[in-house]
Fold this protein.
Amino acid sequence: MSLLTDRTRRYHREVRSGAPLDAVKYWVVCAALVAGAIIAWRSHSFLPPKLFLDEFIIKRFISGELQSDGPSSYGTTGWLYQVTGLGAIPDAFPVLSYLVFAVAVVIATGWKRIPMMSFAAIGLTAGSLVLGGVYLSQYSKEFFVLPLAILLLLARRSWKLEIAWVALALLYAAYVRPYWFLVVVLYLAFRFLIPWLKSAWLLLPVILVGFAVLVVVFDVVLGSPLTFFRTDINNSLDYDRSTQLDDLIAGSALPTQWLNAVLMMAWIAFPVWMVFSGDIVQLAAGVFMAGCWALVVTRTRFVVGHRNAGVLPLAFLLAFLIVQTAFEPDYGSYLRHITPQLPMFLALFAATARRWRVEL
């Protein structure tokens, strides 16, 4: 009992001694929350028009101007906005969408855990809130990923919710983004492997072998290279190519495909090449995402080999990055698609904060 009492007293002394810095952390997060809301509110007035190309198509489906004869991700998304009534509130929707994202951020970090997070993690939390205001302030497919993100965050202590997440993710894959089938498969693989690995370094050979398996499966089952869908989009669509993602090594041999996939994973996670893009928004976002992945690398050792709250977000982030490596045509698309998943980064950072590394 005395040992427990001593620990409790020491904890409260630490909290009191850090009170001024704790207040600074809360202020930073609150300021970013307000800034993100303002960006979302005024986004159509000052953000580049190219950020709203998907919204333009989705609005035409919402209004009925466009109709889909068969399966269509845009058609399904427009239908979802119609049946939920969200398509009828275009002026209020940007802020509403942002607030849903902000709720996911708070669930990920836990309001009471903010003082326990490092200033690096606090900075990334603030950056997430601002980036959410940029990429989620419009009608998009990504809005309907937010409920999935929230459900997975809540599933950290409930296997029933995790099963529900898998079911809903498969539905999303069937009707909106087919590559989510692969996201779910890889998530489940990492979900069960991470607690059993003895060292974080063992994740590296697991990822390398995973890419080798994907290259062979795409070649044998689908009869196409792993990056076929990315290169097909790049060859067929006319859009801003300043941040286009192309294979770094020419060739279609299986070893070349494997090497390209491995290099592309690092290329999009740590986009030092964005310095030459000339786009200030994407440059800042690229630097921010590099910081997120750098912190993931440093925190992975606190998750691998354990059964704690960091397992689910780490498993999802690795699965999602591997799939993005194969499917993202450009860095702007990568940023758009990963923004709803930023709460997963924050959940990992919060779970691995020093005072919260608790086994489940």
Notes: Residues 1-17, 356-360 have pLDDT under 50 and may be disordered.
